[in-house]
Predict the structure.
Amino acid sequence: MASKANMQGNRENKVSNIAGAADQKSRGGKLTLIIISAMLLLGAGGGGTAWYLGQTQDGVKQKSPAFLSLETFTVNLQSEHGDQHLQTNLTLKMADAEAAELIKLHMPEVRNRVLLLLSSKAASQVAAVDGKKKLASELLAEIRQPFSENAPEHAVQSVLFTSFVIQ
């Protein structure tokens, strides 16, 4: 009888172990489902945010600006107190890469315009910060001029000095 009671106890233990394992599987399945749902929700939110930030108010994707560095310019400045030279590097901020490619095609004309404008200045006109700002706006206006009749202005947004030395 003891062995019969013992067997019955073993059966009850086995049944309770199986029920406990099934309960743990059920909890593990729910936890997995919750984790997967949370990951999908975060992924959808991240994708939606990326899409939203890539749009403008009109629903058109914004283009990133492109920067085009020009080779060093060295010019003689207008004489005030003997010979003075300006050596400068310029970078053009363009509306997009397509506009930068157009400027590259006309680089000899761009460099000519810049050299003529720079060499028309005296050191006293461009030495101070205000003089540099005025020069940058004059360079911008000069570079934006069409290369041929009926051609549109170029998409140059600004002229940036990356070095500026007067000797």
In short: The chain has two domains: 1-61, 66-166.
